[in-house]
Known about the structure:
By secondary structure, the chain is α+β, with helices and mostly antiparallel strands. The protein folds into 2 domains: 5-89, no CATH class; 91-127, no CATH class. The chain is 24% helix and 21% strand. The chain contains 3 helices and 6 strands, in the order H-H-E-E-E-E-H-E-E. It has helices at residues 5-16, 24-31, 72-82, and strands at 35-40, 43-47, 53-57, 62-66, 97-99, 123-125. Strands 1-2-3-4 form a 4-stranded antiparallel sheet, with helices on both faces. The mean pLDDT is 95. Zinc ion (ZN) binds next to loops.
Amino acid sequence: MQLPPAIAARIAQCVLGAEGPRLGIDEEARTHGAIALIGAIGMIWGLRPDGSFWMFDRDFEVALEPLPADCQTQALAWGARRFPWLSELLPVRASDAADCAACRGSGMLSVTWMCPRCEGLGWHSER
Ligand SMILES: [Zn+2]
């Protein structure tokens, strides 16, 4: 996806280690030139300053591969929970959008389970 220059620059700063969290998933993401949007067992999703999404997990021998396009909204929703400044990349809620009934607008079904119906946004358009 096309990133605004300010966002791309901030991701680059995180990759350099100048800011952002420093968990194991962050360190591994850095080795791929990316920030870690979400880390779970056997899966880390990352975003590079060039706007490309990736998945990898060294501990589970998951090689670096592009993240499927249909996972990108969910990846960003996760990422905005770790890096609130990524939230401006999320789709803008339309005026006719309704709160997601499955997650009651929270975007999550539990602490670790993102709502698949709204992809973590907490709403969807009734179209
Ligand atoms: Zn939902």
